[in-house]
Amino acid sequence: MHKTLLELAIDEQLAPSEWIKISQADIDLFAEATGDHQWIHVDAQRCAKESPFKTTIAHGYLTVTLMPNAFYAMFAADPHYKTILNYGVDKIRFLEPVRVNDSIRFVSTLIKVEQKQSGCLFYFDTEAQIDGRTKPAMKGTFLMLLAGATLPQS
């Protein structure tokens, strides 16, 4: 059973997200949405000949944008505070390309909680793991705001 955000302790790791398969259609849609049609992402024939990966790779920011939706399933909903906002990402690094048809999942550890006027701000060290590889695709600190929440008194 998942905990709510307010029940988490510092240095507690959430259960990993479900695996997400990255298809060429996903990559192409992201290219359309962002205008980033660099050949390494969208031209499979050229990649087979010229890319060191021999296939297309996902945009790094495609991986980043998949995290919030995956994150919402990694903890229990709080009946008192229904609004969770993506507050941003600190120190993001792209470490390993996500190749077409790779599956990724997110692993997050709570490292800090801060009281803001608008609610509790949670800091999660997060990495995107690639199925079958040891090196993660991405690491960053994701910030999520539980709107209206106040930190419990210790």
Describe this structure in words.
- With 154 residues, this protein is of the alpha+beta class.
- The chain has helices at 24-34, 39-42, 44-50, 60-71, and strands spanning 20-21, 84-94, 103-116, 119-130, 138-147.
- The protein has a five-stranded antiparallel beta sheet with strand order 1-3-4-5-2.
- Strand 4 and strand 5 (138-147) form a beta hairpin.
- The longest helix has 12 residues, at 60-71.
- The protein starts with 19 loop residues before the first strand and ends in a 7-residue tail after the last strand.
Beta content: 25-35%
Mean pLDDT across all residues, rounded? 94
Tell me about the largest β-sheet. Answer: 5 strands, antiparallel
Task: Give the topology string: H per helix, E per strand.
Answer: EHHHHEEEE
E-strand count: 5
Percentage of residues in helical conformation: 10-25%
As laid out across the biggest beta sheet, the strand order is: 1-3-4-5-2
Structural class: alpha+beta
Q: Choose one word for the global shape.
A: elongated
Rounded radius of gyration (Å): 17 Å
Distance between the termini: 24 Å
Residue runs with pLDDT of under 50 for 5 or more positions: none
Per DSSP, the total helix count is 4
